[in-house]
Amino acid sequence: MLHFNSTRISGVDGTDAESLTRGEIDGRRQVMSLSAYLIKNVPGFADARLIATGVQIGIRESRHILGEHVLTGEEVMRGTKVPDVVSRGYFPIDIHNLKGKEGYGQDQDQGTWGDLDDSYDIPYRCLVPRRLDGLVIAGRAISATHEAHGSFRTQGGVMGIGQAAGTAAAVAALDGVEPRKVDVPRLQDALVAQGASLRRDPERVRQERQAAVEAVRRALAESRISTQYLADAGTFTGTAPRL
Fold first, then answer.
1. How far is CA 239 from CA 71, 89, 106, 227, 243, in A?
2. Lowest-confidence range among 128-142, 172-186, 210-224?
3. Beta 85-89 vs 120-123: how paired, if at all?
4. Kind plus residue range of the DSSP H or E element containing 70
5. What pTM, to 2 d.p., does this model score?
6. How many helices (H) and strands (E) does the chain have?
7. Is the pLDDT score of 157 beyond 70?
8. Helix, strand, coil share of the chain (percent; to 5)
9. H or E element that contains 175
10. Of the candidates 109, 119, 141, 123, which has an alpha carbon nearest to the alpha carbon of residue 71?
11. In contact, 126 and 143? CB cutoff 8 Å
């Protein structure tokens, strides 16, 4: 199986139906172009055929709620920990170019990649709208800045947020309270009982990091992997966070 992270669609307003339609047309055009190129130029694809495309365009970001707390890019970068943690983020701040087809450009508004000091906590307060009761938010629409969203937007990140939101809704219903009145320690206990990772043992972190470093070093020594695809030297020198 091969995976191509190749299509890039810019200038789409995720809140406008006509803009979404134009984006879907552009996206399918790109898929067909890539498919034709592979069939014509890449060995092994001569008899390949494009069977299907996605049912709709994937929107990376549009609106966010204004919650009891707004998660910021600075909090993400420095690995902030909070008492009301209900999920953890781990991915670098990865904001793609908003102006064109290339992934990253030279200007600040043409994309950025920022490694984190450590994994960071996502507060329950970010899931609770500031002025609306009876609602818990899941996924990319939680209360956060554009920069913070550039990290937690990944599948693993939003899965953890979704688990937290669903569990919070259940706890609120069982206790007969509004989501903003949920007993956070009770919610955290329920999440941990489900296997959620909310806090780490520092010694276990050290051991896991060292094990990862040694595994990568062995793979490099045996030429099973190449430094070409390592994000930075920290991946195998022990400075890489997020384990």
1. 25, 18, 27, 16, 11
2. 210-224
3. antiparallel
4. none
5. 0.81
6. 7, 4
7. yes
8. 45, 10, 50
9. helix 155-175
10. 123
11. yes
